[in-house]
Amino acid sequence: MPEVNSPERLGGWTRFVTARPRLALLAALVITALAVFAGSGVADRMGSGGWEAPDAESTYTTKALEREFPASQPNLLLLVDSGSASVDDPAVAAEAARLTERLAGEKDITGVGSYWQSKAPALRAEDGREALIAARIEGDDKAMGEVLDRIAPAYRGAHGPVEVSVGGPVAVRHEMQTIIQEDLLRAEMIALPVTLVLLVMVFGSAIAALLPLGVGIVAILGTNAVLRGITEFTDVSVFAQNLTTALGLGLAIDYALFIVRRFREELATGADTRAAVGATLRTAGRTVLFSALTVAVSLAAMLVFPQYFLRSFAYAGIAVVLLAAAAALILLPAALMLLGPRVNSLDLRRLLRRGDGRTGGRVELSASASAESGSGWGRFAALVMRRAPVFAVLTTVGLVLLGLPFLGVKFGTADDRQLPATAESHVVQQHIREGFPGSPGGGLEVLAEGAATPAQYTEYRSRIAGLPGVLRVDGPVTTGRFAYFSVLPDGESVGEGSQRLVQDLRAEPAPFDTSVTGTAAVLVDSKHAIADRLPWAVGIIVVVTLLLVFLLTGSVLIPLQAVVLNALSLTAMFGAVVWVFQDGHLSGPLSFTSTGDIETTLPVLMFCVAFGLSMDYGVFLLSRIKEEYDRTGDHERSVTFGLRHTGGLITAAAVILAVVMVAIGTSRVANTKMLGLGIALAVLMDAMVVRSLLVPSVMKLMGKATWWAPARLRAFHRRFGLSEGTSVPLPAEEISMDAPERDKITSGA
Q1: What is the Cα–Cα distance from 677 to 242, expressed in whole angstroms?
Q2: What is the pLDDT of residues 564-575, one digit of tens each?
């Protein structure tokens, strides 16, 4: 008979949580109020970039050019539209010159230049009706945004014979940050009421439904305060706030569903409130703790990457997971201690069903517990296991086929096309992209450092002009020991040809030190940084997941199965991301502009988040299977028991989390839309396909070998492992009973 771990390890924790519940809730209220104050204004301190690797050659070169040649790195563009007249018309030229001079006099503005000063062809539209004024705003993201807010209204709009629109990288980032904040507020307004309705449908009780929302709000507010503190020391991406909201609500609901459901089950057996809370913490509490650790590890893996965009999601994710778990394991039990059987109060489902003569008390609790246990899921599990080879093969093949589009993935960089088509900065960049010669903003800059003669510069320029894929070379522009060349690629700014040109430029010998930057160079360096660190991130996730699942189950094969099946659950998400967002299918109904590629960091982010959430559901299911196996030693009945007692719970939790992610996916920013909708799909596929079909069929095929472990590892698990089960093994006569009969005995019905 399998061995069961002692429940005594959590006795002190249980006493701590249940001793002074009113004091615990009061302390939580005070801490939450402080978190609201500490986290206020956090979005204003966040950045909207972070895709570049800080230690890359392109990053170094960009900073050097900003320092030595401010005009070479303009981040503010004024698109001057002359209407039906030519940009060379005297009246248009005079007004443009006045605007250029005025902009040069603004505080914190440097490197101002225009077509009318330089007559550079790249600054004039091919139809002669538009031209550019370029400048650079100094400072960090926050400072640049403040300057833009100050000066943009004075330049935007009609000025005599011309119409001016504001664009450039600063405008793109600032508009993206503003839209994300607005969309996040709207997503919360959508997700909260819908989530509450779904929770009422799951629990019946309005009181029980409010508890998960309370846990989620505490986690979100606490995480905002943590992020506000982190911004004092490092850059944090504004995109991370979306993950805070999604995981804060999603995981809080998952954990609270699991704990409240187990609490109600314990009450249904006749236990008093304190005993029910204690049993819940010793069982469901352990599972929540393991689940939080697995999710946190998946998110922490993003810390190995140098891009602060990815690291920001690790900061936000770890904080919100730990705070959601802490609230679920401390504040929620305290609330349950005070509520007791009143957790089932305000049962709104009674309004929709006829009375049957039963009233409150234990009968109603037992009915609720029985309904939640899901006998239909038990029958479904039995069906799947009877046809295990068919379900295992068909499900695996189907998931692999759904993931095939990802084989054609193309990686790119985020740009203005992340914004809605009507956003001003997007409109400006689109005009430049379509109407100006070459690829303005997509060129490459080569920085030359060290003493050199004019002849050496000329000879080097001739050599790089002869490289494949070069349309034009301008320069050098020199100052002291520095010079730079502008290289315009022939083709797309981040296409394969431009990326090869970056490599050719870096390999070209020169009598001075050279380094390359530009859109394609940033992409090349970002891909290299991710490829270099990805094995470490995946290794961390896999190794720690294997260890944690082993500690939970005591099996060697179940952790391996969990990792493989989790990976399979993500295939549909990755296939859909490429099919929809890269290839542009459904771009009309979903209102986004397809760029023909996927931003390099997003698949990494989506993998870490979705893998962690999949393990969240996996731990819930495995813990109940292990509990029953510890009691009975019956493998197949344990699988049926686990799916019967968690199938409905996991499905409800997945649907609620998917609702939250879809609300995030209504964002007008394409990357946020991709993140929300992609993870929603992954969560639903995991709960409704992998946990329902693949896990029971694979466990049936593996049989009792599922629980095998070498003797030394079994001894290790006996000493250090934790599991949800706390019951003693059942007598042999009960093991032989059918599952419904055995449930009547073990539930006290």
Answers
A1: 12
A2: 998 998 999 999
Unique residue bearing structure tokens 């503190």? 229
Contact of 112 with 100, CB cutoff 8 Å = yes
Q: How many CA within 13 A on the CB side of residue 57?
A: 22
**What's the N-to-C CA distance of the chain in angstroms?**
26
Task: Tally Cβ neighbours within 10 Å of residue 731.
Answer: 9
Q: At 202, list the tokens.
A: 């799951």
The structure's pTM equals: 0.84
pLDDT tens-place string over residues 25-57: 888 888 888 888 888 878 778 877 778 888 899
CB within 8 Å of 453: residues ≥ 6 apart: none
CA neighbor of 546 nearest in space, from 558, 534, 538: 558
Helix (H, G, I), strand (E, B) or coil at 111: strand
How large is the greatest C-alpha to C-alpha distance in the chain, in angstroms? 101
| Under 8 Å between Cβ of 640 and 377 | no
Cα gap 390→385, rounded to integer Å: 9
Closest to 102 in 3D by CA, of 124, 81, 82, 78: 78
How many Cβ atoms are within 10 Å of 347's Cβ, its own excluded? Answer: 18
Which run of H or E residues covers position 473?
Answer: strand 470-479
CB 385 within 8 A of CB 697: yes
User: In this structure, are strands 444-449 and 130-137 parallel, antiparallel, or unpaired?
Assistant: unpaired
What residues contact residue 199 under an 8 Å CB cut-off, 6+ apart?
208, 209, 210, 212, 213, 253, 656
Q: How far apart are CA 436 and CA 172, in angstroms?
A: 19
Beta-carbon count within 10 A of 88 CB = 14
Separation CA 605–CA 596 (nearest Å): 19
Residues written for the chain: 749
CB 109 within 8 A of CB 135: yes
**Which residue in the block uniquely carries the two structure tokens 């037992």?**
366
C-alpha to C-alpha distance for 567 and 294, rounded to whole angstroms: 14
